[in-house]
Amino acid sequence: MAAKVPLRKSTHVFAVHEIPLECDVYDAFDYPNDGIVFLYFHPGGLVCGSRIAVPPWLVQVCHQRKWPLVSASYRLLPQVNGDGLLDDARAAYEFARSLGSHTERRVIVGGGSAGFFLATIIAHHLTPKPAALLSISGIPTFRHRFFNSSTLLPPDPVYEMDVEAYMVEPVAVGRSPYDPLAVFYVDSLLPDGSKNPDFASAGRQPPSNNDQDQNRGLLYDYWLYENAFITMVDSVDLGFDWTAGKQQESKLEEWPVTIFIQGSSDLDVSPHVCADVASALGPEKAIYCAASSQDHLFEAHKFLEDHQIDEAGQDCMDAVRKAVAELDKVVAPN
Q: What does the alpha-carbon distance between residue 191 and residue 187 come to, in Å, rounded to a whole number?
């Protein structure tokens, strides 16, 4: 039964790894305490972003199904490496599994852009496996030629002098949303989970502690040009062809169904990255939902009711709605 009470937001410390790690939980008082939980990791190239940036359509999906949505912070590169990211992802996953004191909750894990990398390493390294994975313009692996061949990238390089100050900063989580319009506000939804037609985000200010330098995102471009990402996350990144070899069948049997949403004109994460991973997983484990002519995180501000028609007359949100329908099938009770 769909939710019919207002959405609420609460903030929790789910771990202390050098610094406190916080998550925001979106739920309502009538949610069951043993249902599915959705764990979300924010975009930002693993170097910036904020947990307060959550796609409104994703919050709608969770609220309408009475799935608590946990949007978790994680420590940023380069102050941590791949092992540190896995530690943070593990703590967030354990928090989601035990939410409301129930210790066996099923968890869908998703992420936007590089946030999906944390979802992937959860599936690689932790048990029990997630109920499903949802990639939103996501990065499932840095062991792909796109991230290790700077000739595939736009022609404007970023130099070390542009980013050296960020490399010596204290350890931190993301505190600045990549786009102020991507910040989610609970009053943008009506109690039934539909879009609030009277809501206006214009003029609203993100929380005051979101004071991180937004230029920190240049680290992503710098490490792409230096082909350096894999050196930082190599210890936990098993690559896009991890299913090859003698243990392919057993690995695939355990792997959760993975649903990909991506714009076909994505410049920040080449569509080939997700397409190659989907091909390696095979049709029984991967569902690829492409939005024609759309760029990176094209759906970041959209609600389920919204429409964005491209020059060919196609609605980009159809890819999102298709992905949601597939997700419902995957996690439906047997």
A: 9
Q: Name all domains of the chain by residue range, CATH numbers in brackets.
A: 8-145+168-204+229-331 (3.40.50.1820)
CA–CA dist 158, 291 (Å, integer): 30
**pLDDT at position 179:** 83
Can you list the alpha helix ranges (DSSP code H) found in the chain? 56-64, 82-97, 115-125, 160-167, 218-225, 229-233, 248-254, 271-281, 317-331
How far, in Å, CA of 24 to CA of 280, rounded? 34
Q: Strand pairing partners for 134?
A: 110, 259
Query: Cα(315)–Cα(191) distance, rounded to whole angstroms?
Result: 26
Asked if 24 and 11 touch (Cβ cutoff 8 Å), the reply is yes
Q: What is the largest CA-CA distance in the chain?
A: 57
Report d(CA 253, CA 84) in Å as an integer. 27
Distance CA 69, CA 38 (A): 5
Check whether 61 has a pLDDT greater than 90: yes
DSSP state of 309: B
3-state SS class at 202: coil
Strand-pair category, 69-72 with 37-41: parallel
Question: Is residue 152 predicted with pLDDT exceeding 60?
Answer: no
Average pLDDT over residues 85-97: 98
Closest CA to 38 of 324, 334, 333, 317: 324
